[in-house]
Amino acid sequence: MNPELCNREHLRIVVRLAAFFTLFFCTVSSYARPDMSPLGPNIADKGSAFYHFSVRTFDSTDGKRHYKVWTGIPNKAPPASGYPAVYLLDGNAVMDRLSDAFLQTLSQHNPPVIVAIGYQTPLPFDLESRTWDYTPPAEGNEQVLRGRKGGGSQAFRQLIEQTIAPQVEQHTAINPHKRALWGHSYGGLFVLDAYLSSRIFTAYYTAVPSIDHNNVALLNQITHTEKQRVSHKQLWLMEGDGEQRVREKGNHLDVLIAIRETASTLRDNGTAATFLLFPGLTHGEMFTASFQAALQRIATEE
């Protein structure tokens, strides 16, 4: 790609993001708040005709956060190359929204091993822990997001790569070339950060990542990253355009354009990146839609 055109592309992204950030804090409260009611039994508790589940617990290295990890293994025999595997953040909410009917659709193809990484809580989200675990450190400052400390993504990623993944994959035939990571909102931000830093995942699904002034540099780093650094990776940027109904019109649209142009710039540079738009879906509605789309896409890949 022509360097001058590339620089113009990056400038357009930065300008649109800057316009977004001037209004960010005025509109962030208009996001639909998640339902924080305690969860009932999930598919692992009820039993599935198509998957069998196990549960493991882990602790953070500093002992402050406590994880619950569900591993779903298809009853269908693995292919010769091993099962694909999908690691999903916000595992409590994911497990609550997995149905046996959906698992049946996966089993009609090449069903992946499902690794849902949650917390030891009866609630769908551990807001304090996920804010710390999923967000990268802000440059030069302690990151505080809606009154919660952030910036612990590096330690959490190391826990996944060095402790959680080896244990959950032990004695299971996994295809190391088809290992994916999915996250929504702060989790989507974690996926973007991992795209630049992780070596064990080959597919990265980021759904409505919470881009703000603390981490705007991530998109710029991604578009400027050397091709060989991500040559074995695929990036899926998943967005809904229904947010303009609950936020000031044009605000979210600027981010949509920036995300779309990030994917376009990566493709122009020869990097595997895809922008997926979910028409009419809002931030919250993207949670289930995006993780189901990621699982279906992986199950149907050749």
Automatic annotation (TrEMBL):
InterPro entries on file: AB_hydrolase_fold, Esterase-like, Siderophore_Hydrolase_D
Gene Ontology MF annotations: hydrolase activity, acting on ester bonds
Domain of life: Bacteria
Record bears the keyword Cell division: no
This protein's record includes keyword Hydrolase: yes
Pfam families: Esterase (PF00756)
Alphabetized UniProt keyword annotations: Hydrolase
Coiled coil: none
Family of this protein: Belongs to the esterase D family.
Protein's name according to its UniProt entry: Alpha/beta hydrolase
Species: Kosakonia oryzendophytica
Organism placement in taxonomy: Bacteria, Pseudomonadati, Pseudomonadota, Gammaproteobacteria, Enterobacterales
